[in-house]
Design brief:
Blueprint: H1 17-27, H2 32-37, H3 42-57, H4 60-73, H5 77-81
Amino acid sequence: MSRINVSSREAAPTASQPLLDRVFKTLGVVADLFCVFARSPAAPEGFLDLSGALSKTLEVKTRERIAIAVAAVDGQRRRTAHRLP
């Protein structure tokens, strides 16, 4: 089975680079998934639009719980460690 190569910010298309910067500003990290998304500038842009819409809908505690759950499933233990009481 072939694997998807994860590119860096610098290797992403020029139109995607500012979007990856916005992802970093929003989340504090750019996960590999976003680097794969960046192959098509519409994908990270869609995520950022959705994230912006949810930030107006969900309260901070709920968004934080979602972030912890996603990070735990994604195996990013170091990302969840500082969030847990």
